[in-house]
Amino acid sequence: MQLLWPDSPAHAQALRDAHPGARFVAGATALQQEWGDRHRAPQGCCLVPLHALEALRGIGLADGGRTLRIGAGCALETVRTHPLVIAHAPLLAQALDQLGALGVRHLGTLGGNVGWRWGDSTPALLVLDAQAEGVLAPDQRLPLAQWLAAPVPALPLLAALHIPLLPGCQPPQAVFEKAAVRAAFAPARLRLALRWSGIPACGRTLSHAAAAAPGLPARLLVHALAWLQQNAGLHGAWALDGLREACADDGLPIGHPEDLAHLAARLIAGHCGLLAPAPLP
Ligand SMILES: Cc1cc2nc3c(=O)[nH]c(=O)nc-3n(C[C@H](O)[C@H](O)[C@H](O)COP(=O)(O)OP(=O)(O)OC[C@H]3O[C@@H](n4cnc5c(N)ncnc54)[C@H](O)[C@@H]3O)c2cc1C
């Protein structure tokens, strides 16, 4: 195994780019799952460790208080318990509440969870409109969905995530769901986050939906959202069938053995109150 120690985030990016096949490593809690023997890195593996880079840590308000900036190197438990995250992005804290055990959350980082592509935080960050800050041009941020779309070996170093704050600094109404089979230590099958606009008392509208699953990188469910907008008023089985097709168009597998499109449709329909039959006129 070769370790290439960087002395700055930009150096880390340069080292990775100069060594084909090299990988960034932060807590290594996701990376080790790719190894045949989880206690030993594979022969010839080349890693760029990030955990000594102070510049990747820190949580604070940025852009004159308009965004919450979270360093990619922050441990998941630090993010989950940070007062600014709890106040402005409680959805992210809620997603991290359900991630692994305390030991994993102390080792694993937010950057590693996003770099893994289907970690619990990713759908939550997508519905919060998070932007990815790279290292070469920190002022040029990319929407997280676009950053995640980069090809795997070329996924650039994530320095920080920026979550825009709403006027009045009220956190958006949102929910995070993690669905798994009912067995001890069963890995989650689907991670889903939903966000509404509007005020509950005056009627609210689903404005964002995102999902991730093992092997299925996090994505915004744009077809599901469009289907809901075009089919307001459909309830019960009609709504479930239509939503399931729309989730399949968003790339969620349909049919046997993993009907994640059906699972996502049920969760969305349930949260939008569409599972009950339509009220009689
Ligand atoms: C027992 C156990 C339970 C777990 N349970 C869960 C769970 O419930 N939910 C969940 O989501 N995850 C879970 N995980 C996976 C893992 O712990 C988390 O995803 C964690 O956030 C990964 O962070 P890390 O720092 O360890 O990433 P690493 O393993 O170091 O890296 C993961 C990937 O991200 C890349 N990467 C790391 N940092 C950056 C960066 N700054 N910029 C770009 N790429 C980067 C790496 O190259 C690698 O491809 C579990 C792991 C274990 C061992």
UniProtKB/TrEMBL annotation:
- Source domain of life is Bacteria
Q: Which InterPro entries match?
A: Diverse_Substr_Oxidored, FAD-bd_PCMH, FAD-bd_PCMH-like_sf, FAD-bd_PCMH_sub2, Mopterin_DH_FAD-bd
> Which SUPFAM superfamilies did the record assign?
FAD-binding/transporter-associated domain-like
Question: What one GO molecular function would you report for this record?
Answer: FAD binding
One Pfam family matching this protein = FAD_binding_5
Please state every residue range assigned to the domain named FAD-binding PCMH-type: 1-168
Q: What is this protein called?
A: FAD binding domain-containing protein
Q: Which organism is it from?
A: Comamonas antarctica
